[in-house]
Amino acid sequence: MAGEQGDYSYADDQELVDQFMTWTIDAVKELREITTEMEASGTDQGKADRVYDISHNIKGMGSSFNFGLMTTVGTSLCRYIKTAGENASARGVGAHVRIFEVVLENKITGEGGEKGQALVNRLAEIVAEES
After folding, report:
1. Residue ranges of the chain with pLDDT lower than 50?
2. 3: DSSP letter
């Protein structure tokens, strides 16, 4: 817990949380743009690499700011891109991006409870279909 034994949680610093949210909103917008490009012209290594880089950063920061669901989805997207590479589908990437958007729009903290688990389960189904 924050405050015990000198522990510090980034989630307790509203200025840092606001910065995280601003950065993440912009990053997810970029992921949405890449997904739209993938729908129009397919995936190439450059797009796959950029999706991986962005999702890796989201996954790394999510839990630090009490957005564990962002970390879970970011981890899934990193794995998907690492496995699929240039064969990653717009549908597979887009499913991840949509959950990021839902989390941000609704400011869902932690793992999101039952609804969060339902989103993760559906995401796993889509990834399996696209793999």
Report:
1. 1-5
2. T
